[in-house]
UniProtKB/TrEMBL annotation:
SUPFAM superfamilies: UROD/MetE-like
Name listed for the protein in its UniProt record: Uroporphyrinogen decarboxylase
InterPro entries attached to this UniProt entry: Methanogen_methyltrans, UROD/MetE-like_sf, Uroporphyrinogen_deCOase
GO molecular-function term, one example from the UniProt record: uroporphyrinogen decarboxylase activity
GO biological-process terms attached to the record: porphyrin-containing compound biosynthetic process
Pfam families found in the cross-reference section: URO-D
Biological source species: Candidatus Hakubella thermalkaliphila
All copies of domain Uroporphyrinogen decarboxylase (URO-D), residue ranges: 114-312
Amino acid sequence: FRHIQAGPPDNYEEPSFGDPHASYEDYASGATQHAFVDEWGIKWRRAAYYYDMVEHPLAGASLEDLKAYRWPDPHDPGKTRGLREKARDLYLNTDYALVADPASGGILEMALWTRGFEDFYIDLGTHSKFATILLDGITEYFLAWFGEYLDTVGDYIQIIAQGDDLGMQDRMLLPPNLYRKYIKPRHQKVIELIKSKTRAKVFHHSCGAIVPVIGDLIEISVDILNPIQPRAEGMNTWELKRVYGHSITFHGGVDVQTVLPRGTADDVVEEVKERIASLGPGGGYILAASHNIQADVPPENIVAMFEAAHEYGQYPLQIELSRRSDAS
């Protein structure tokens, strides 16, 4: 795969990444900090290897404040500058599958990030007008931005990555009925727009325990589901394949919470074999870590995952594992 990522908008200064000489301990202790405000008005502060949200532009806002909110410009030329040339070159001169990667957040995520988690959850229960107007504005932005992006690269890509984190470790971020009422129809609008502009497969990222809505994602034409976190509640890869494997491709699955960071190389090989045995039969599985490989993963475990995938992931599959009662 090669990813075609959007560039920074012209009217926004891309942040630097703090002191290049600072150590992990400097960031973890707060001795070195770097903060920036993104084009949505969200303030982020560097902490160790990541940035944390520290201010939400619509926290405590009224409907009048929301009406005056300055939305990002979906047509800013900086976001697509040079992308068509890059995509065309990769398409014509390499064998890579090209993945369009236009957005860093989804509809629910941007509502939570701009409004603040607590305020938005209260809105859903007691102030649905605010929630609806906010979600509609976010959806309109994504429809305009995805249209602009796909008009630029849509004829060269094979996959378009988008998503929305819907799950935590043990449950969903919001009940399935609220997902179906507020988020699913808006997801569907965006996916319909995508399908009208490209033949690329729709890749949907959602962390966590999302079994209750996998059928909904299939219904709105999601083709690939990522990252398949096997330690999350209900995300048993044998069951996922049995119930949904005829309708969707799974991407991910190799446990990045426990096995990759704390297991031995042999543990990693067994983990890879388990995921291939449960998700691989008949196709429809792209083997990868169950999220970004983190800084605490030993290099030898990354190598073990790669080598095991090559050894056991060739079709026809030569791997046979009995289904374990404790398989995830």
